[in-house]
Amino acid sequence: MNIVLFHSTHGLRPAVCQAADRLRAAGHEVWTPDLFEGRTFETVEEGTEYNEQVGKDELLKRAVLAAAPYSERGLVYAGFSLGASIAQTLALGDEKARGLLLLHGTSDIAPNASVDGLPVQLHVAEPDPFETDDWLSAWYLQMGRAGADVEVYRYAGAGHLYTDPGLPDYDEEAAEATWRVALGFLETL
After folding, report:
1. Contact criterion met (CB below 8 Å) for 33 and 17
2. Could you tell me which SUPFAM superfamilies the record lists for this protein (predicted)?
3. Torsion over CA of 82, 86, 88 and 92, rounded to 10 degrees?
4. Which residues contact 78 (CB under 8 A, 6 or more apart)?
5. How many domains are there within the chain?
6. Does the N terminus or the C terminus of the chain have fewer Cβ atoms within 10 A?
7. With 0-12 CB in 10 A as exposed, 13-18 as middle and 19+ as buried, what is 52?
């Protein structure tokens, strides 16, 4: 499977590269675009400040340009938190998308979004301050209306970015469970 994996608001950290290596070891081809042009951030606040300076449109432009050389192959779009929201936006706009793997994040859905049974898997902490229950319920219904085939996995007690061993949110048990399920999902695509 061809996968483009987008980083979180912390930037292209070692955990993203480790995740890509895990996916490659399972036989996938993976690209990890650096949307922050080499910058990484220790805190969500620092990353969010940079993200706001660059702007959502510019980040999406960078993501589209990074994915474009591979999109004809039929990509699985994947991402962590901010990267998940970017992956979702790109996947919903790419008729050749093969799947969408969301780790720790979702995004608004355009009212006219339409896909034909796009397989989508979301892994998120429970509770998650960035992905509240009300938001996730509405998101799930909207994705269904758009035509996506959605699976949601919640991890009680885990922190927001629980798959990143370099952050305080890290939860090894939840991270390993996430990767087991996600790798199984990718095998079905």
Report:
1. no
2. alpha/beta-Hydrolases (SSF53474)
3. 160
4. 3, 4, 5, 6, 84, 87, 100, 101, 102, 103
5. 1
6. C
7. exposed
Contact 106, 88 (CB under 8 A): yes
Domain that holds residue 62: 2-188
Contacts of 155 (CB under 8 A, 6+ apart): 123, 124, 125, 126, 162, 171, 174, 177, 178
Backbone angles phi, psi at 123, to 5 degrees: -120, 125
Question: What is the distance of C-alpha 101 from the center of its chain?
Answer: 6
Which positions of the chain have pLDDT values less than 70?
A: none
pLDDT per position as a tens digit, 112-144: 999 999 999 999 999 999 999 999 999 999 999
